[in-house]
Structures are given as C-alpha cells and as structure tokens.
C-alpha cells in the first residue's frame, strides 16, 4: 500500500502533485495512506515527487481546488485522505461539489471554514514586539502565536505585504516564519520564546481600554470574536476581566451623565430610516461606514487584501465617481484612485473641468482582488457574487452622500450601479439610472486606456474618454441648474 509523506512546508502543492499522480495510476483511496512529515514508520514512505511522476490531465472543479487549498492546512490527520477520496469521486460524480446533502463534502466544507477562521484570527491577533534597536535601517519584531491549524504558512504572505518594510519573525509550535530583507522563509516550530515586552504594549492597553464602550458590552459576542485561548498572547487582554467587572457601574454612570434631550443627529437618522425604501439599519455617517466596511467579511476578498478602501470626498458632493476596485497601491494606502489609473483619471478629469476634490470618489468593490505572481500582486476582475456582496456598501455611500450624478467608470461599476452586464463600449456616453433612480453617466475605466498597447489607439481612446468626462460635467451642471 503506498504511503505518501508530505513535507512540512509546501504541503498544499505536494498534496496536489501526489494526488494527481495517484489518480493517474488509478490508486483507490483505501489503498493509500498519508502523513505530514516523515516519521519512523515512514521509512518506506514515498515522497510526493515520486508519486507524482505519472501525471494525468485531470480536470477538477475550481471550487474543489480552492477547498483543497484550505483543507490541507487543517489539523485533522485524515485531511489528505478525505480530500483524495473526494477527488476520486469527482472523476465520475458530476455535480458532486454542489451536493449539499453529501456528508463527506459537508465535512470538508466545515474544515475549510475552520481554516478560514483560524487564518482570520491570526491576522487579527498576532502581536509583534520590537526586539532590535530602533535606529536600525530595518526595525526588527517578533511574535509568538498558537494557531489551531497549520495556518502560518498560508497566512505569512499577508504579514509580508503588510509589514514589508521591517524584519520580523512569527514563531508557532509547528513552524516559524521569518521575513528578512523582503524575503520570506520558514524554519521549524519552537517552544514559546522569551520575547521581552516593548513600549507599544502599554499603548495597546490604553487604546483598548479607551475604545471599550461599557454600555455595549456583550460578553458572548466578545468571547466568540476573541476566544479566551488567544488571551494569553494578547497584551491588551489582561484588562478584559476588570473591564467586564466594572462595565455595569460605568454604563450607569454614563447614563446618569447623559443629556436629557436626544441629540439632533438622532432625529435626522430616525427621519431617514423612516423614509420609503429604507428598510435596513444604516451607518449614520461616513466615518462609521468606513469602520464597518473595514470589518466586512461579506465575501472572501477581505482575507488577502491589506484593508478595505472606502470612498472619500465631501459628504455633500453632488458628483460621485465609481471605479472598479482598489488596485495594488490603493490597497496599501487605504485610499481610492491614488495609483496609475487614479493619476490618469485626475489629469483627464482636470482637463475636462471636473474638480476631483469636490467629488466623492469610490469603488464598486472595496477590497483588492489579486493573484500573487512572484512578488507581484496581479489584479483580478471581481465576479458578480463579489460585486453583489459589496453593493451594500456602495448603496450606503450613495444614500449618505446623495449625489446628483454618478460617473461610472468601467464594466464592474456599471454592473453594480445599473444591474446590467451589457458591454460598456456600446453604452459609454449615455445616462442610465440606479434602481433607486440616481442618474448614472457611463464611461470606460481609465485603466482600459493604460492597457492599450498601440499608442495611436491609446491617444484616440484618451480623447474619447476626455469627451465623455466633459459630457458628464455638462450633464452635472444641467442637473445643478434644474
Ligand atoms: N482602479 C479602480 O477602479 N479604483 C481604484 O481605486 C484604483 C484603480
């Protein structure tokens, strides 16, 4: 019976290669055993490269590839075998990935969810402590974390992007991630190292105590967001017991000190929520909306992006500009249209008489969707599900800003705003409406111009784009005057 010993790192690719090889050799699931890392009993184990020598061209649903890409990091020793059994069945069972009643698939889905959750917790709860002198060219940090699953390897690139300008190490019992001079590598796991507290710890504690609202204390929700097992490695968590214990008295004191008249803003919110067509709770201002967008998990895009990129501009702007999604630079800066497409838009908008500083500039999708390629992050178009999931935020921005006109740039913005996926080239220069009746002027996306390889064509298209923006501005002026 073949036994496959997968390596400690690169386990996902090794599993895929081995599984393909086994399928090509028609080895049924009950005739193969799997492990991660060789043990003494594995002396006769085969390395994945050996198993993978016979390659088959095997077509599997994308959904399975993504499921397997998560489940391999689960701690269940049966995970590789479960995935292989599913792959084996996929050869003959069409539609298996859609079968909600299939127990084996349901188990894999719940494992996938557990891995997603574990990765998310890691991005939220790793706390770095500074370990080097502050005047080094690259500051040095270290963190200790205890993930539930083997999630350090797939999550480390997130930290590499976010903390690209410092050197750091994240140690876990299974694996250590090391980021030095921009290179990410892995070493064996280790027992908890003795990392001395640093000055930021006190700062964290103060910040945490200050953002805590005793009147909103929900111990159940808090424990589910920040389970107790993480507390021991979170410097701020030492304040939690005292904060819970004193919450009642502090909330009462807040109530006693509260003004007796409701704040003016409350009346405005009540009025707006009572308006026809408003059927759900909404953020009451743009700052709150930004905070809510940043906590969004409505679709998986938040998992790899650095942060959400909310719209920006005056609260009373009468022009709203909507693009597709943040790009690489926007994702890092947390601001829309600051990269090459944004600079191109700024220039042509200025020439067309549009003042960007008076417009509210935003995107149909708030998180950057990309595929990693070496050190680069390659833009990917958001799909209809992601556009729909993010429509809530765009709609909230429209309702708060109440623009007279929306300038929609590119197919994604047009789909989100009008619900129609018809090609943008045949609709550009025309005005349609959102389902709520806000006029939408349609044009192409500036990055379309940047991608055109032929300079003459690019000049022509740039001219057309400038003409579109001029028409949009003229239309806005008509609306202002009416
Ligand atoms: N492209 C967009 O659609 N939006 C941005 O914010 C940047 C590039």
Automatic annotation (TrEMBL):
Residues 310-470 form the Uracil-DNA glycosylase-like domain. It comes from the Bacteria. GO terms for biological process: DNA repair. Pfam families: DUF4130, UDG. InterPro entries: DNA_repair_put (IPR023875), DUF4130 (IPR025404), UDG_Type-4/5 (IPR051536), Ura-DNA_glyco_family4 (IPR005273), Uracil-DNA_glycosylase-like (IPR005122), Uracil-DNA_glycosylase-like_sf (IPR036895). SUPFAM superfamilies: Uracil-DNA glycosylase-like (SSF52141). One of its GO terms (molecular function) is deaminated base DNA N-glycosylase activity. Keywords: 4Fe-4S, DNA damage, DNA repair, Hydrolase, Iron, Iron-sulfur, Metal-binding. Belongs to the uracil-DNA glycosylase (UDG) superfamily. Type 4 (UDGa) family. PANTHER family: TYPE-4 URACIL-DNA GLYCOSYLASE, TYPE-5 URACIL-DNA GLYCOSYLASE. This is Type-4 uracil-DNA glycosylase. The lineage of its organism: Bacteria, Pseudomonadati, Pseudomonadota, Alphaproteobacteria, Rhodobacterales.
């Amino acid at each position: 019976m073949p036994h496959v010993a997968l390596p400690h790192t690169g386990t996902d690719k090794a599993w895929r290669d081995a599984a393909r090889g086994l399928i090509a050799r028609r080895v049924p699931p009950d005739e193969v055993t799997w492990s991660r890392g060789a043990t003494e009993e594995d002396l006769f184990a085969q390395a994945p490269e050996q198993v993978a020598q016979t390659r088959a061209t095997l077509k599997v649903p994308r959904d399975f590839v993504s499921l397997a890409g998560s489940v391999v990091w689960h701690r269940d020793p049966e995970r590789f075998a479960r995935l292989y059994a599913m792959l084996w069945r996929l050869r003959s069972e069409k539609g298996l990935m859609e079968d909600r009643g299939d127990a084996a698939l349901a188990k894999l889905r719940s494992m996938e969810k557990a891995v997603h959750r574990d990765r998310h917790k890691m991005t939220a709860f790793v706390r770095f402590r500074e370990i080097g002198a502050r005047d080094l060219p690259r500051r040095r940090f270290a963190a200790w974390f205890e993930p539930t699953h083997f999630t350090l390897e797939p999550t480390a690139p997130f930290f590499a992007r976010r903390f690209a300008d410092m050197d750091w190490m994240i140690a876990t019992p299974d694996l250590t991630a090391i980021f030095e001079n921009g290179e990410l590598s892995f070493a064996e796991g280790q027992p908890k190292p003795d990392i001395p507290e640093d000055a930021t710890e006190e700062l964290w504690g103060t910040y945490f105590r200050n953002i805590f609202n005793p009147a909103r204390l929900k111990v159940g929700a808090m424990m589910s967001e920040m389970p107790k097992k993480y507390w021991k490695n979170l410097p701020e968590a030492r304040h939690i017991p005292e904060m819970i214990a004193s919450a009642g008295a502090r909330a009462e004191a807040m109530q006693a000190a509260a003004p007796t008249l409701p704040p003016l803003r409350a009346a405005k919110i009540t009025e707006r929520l009572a308006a026809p067509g408003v059927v759900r709770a909404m953020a009451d201002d743009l700052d709150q909306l930004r905070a809510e967008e940043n906590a969004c998990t409505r679709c998986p895009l938040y998992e790899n992006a650095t942060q959400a990129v909310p719209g920006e501009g005056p609260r009373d702007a009468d022009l709203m500009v909507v693009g597709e999604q943040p790009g690489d630079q926007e994702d890092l800066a947390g601001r829309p249209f600051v990269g090459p497409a944004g600079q191109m838009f700024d220039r042509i908008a200025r020439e067309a008489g549009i003042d960007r500083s008076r417009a509210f500039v935003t995107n149909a999708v708030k998180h950057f969707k990309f595929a990693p390629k070496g050190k680069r992050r390659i833009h990917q178009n958001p799909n209809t599900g992601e556009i729909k999931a993010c429509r809530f935020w765009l709609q909230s921005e429209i309702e708060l800003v109440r623009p007279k006109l929306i300038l929609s740039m590119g197919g994604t913005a047009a789909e989100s705003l009008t619900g129609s996926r018809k090609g943008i080239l045949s609709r550009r220069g025309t005005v349609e409406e959102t389902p709520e009746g806000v006029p939408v002027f349609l044009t192409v996306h500036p990055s379309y111009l940047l991608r055109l390889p032929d300079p003459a064509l690019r000049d022509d298209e740039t001219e057309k784009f400038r003409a579109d923006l001029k028409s949009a501005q003229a239309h806005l002026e008509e609306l202002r005057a009416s």
